[in-house]
Specification:
The protein is an alpha+beta fold. The chain folds into two domains: 78 residues, Glutaredoxin; 71 residues, Antioxidant, Horf6, Chain A, domain 2. 33% of the residues lie in helices and 20% in strands. The protein has a three-stranded antiparallel β-sheet with strand order 5-7-6, with helices on one face. A two-stranded parallel ribbon has the order 1-2. A two-stranded antiparallel sheet has the order 3-4. The radius of gyration is 21 Å and the shape is elongated. It comes from Thermofilum pendens. Its EC number is 1.11.1.15. Keywords: Antioxidant, Cytoplasm, Oxidoreductase, Peroxidase, Redox-active center.
Length: 150
């Protein structure tokens, strides 16, 4: 969903411009928040910028849970690759019960592997080290284990 404090006609022209100039159809709804009320409630009006909104991205999962909020000032464009990476990371973490490292899938230390959440007790820590000895998972230590999901 897109939200802007612009009026409907501005949105129509924006969609037309993108279609004509870039050959891309906007397939998501765009909300015209011409009073700015919704933008204010979502924290998108920066106090130092008057009525100009910051560019915000809200990632909401299929259960309606807000998972991430990214705010971008007008001077800085959004990083679409990072937004897509975050969505894939949430999906992967949820599917496999793991944590996703920084810069995944190109993490400098473990590449495209994922982090197994730390052991909560000694028994689990011992089991982790046994799995590592059998090469079922990899560990730097009992508290930092990781695996491939490929």
């Amino acid at each position: 969903v897109g939200l802007s404090i612009d009026q409907v006609f501005s949105h129509i022209k924006w969609v037309e411009w993108i279609r004509e100039r870039l050959g891309v159809d906007i397939k998501f709804p765009i909300i015209a928040d011409d009073t700015g009320e919704i933008a204010k409630r979502l924290g998108m009006i920066h106090p130092a910028k008057g009525t100009n909104t910051v560019r915000a991205v809200f990632i909401i999962d299929p259960n309606g849970i807000l998972r991430a909020i990214l705010y971008y000032p007008q001077e800085v464009g959004r990083n679409i690759d990072e937004i897509i990476r975050m969505i894939k990371a949430f999906q992967t973490a949820d599917k496999y019960g793991v944590a996703i490292p920084a810069n995944w899938p190109n993490n400098e230390l473990i590449g495209d592997k994922v982090i197994i959440p730390p052991a909560a007790d000694e028994k689990t820590a011992k089991e982790r080290l046994e799995k590592a000895a059998k090469k079922e998972i990899e560990c730097y230590d009992w508290w930092f284990c990781y695996k491939s999901i490929q």
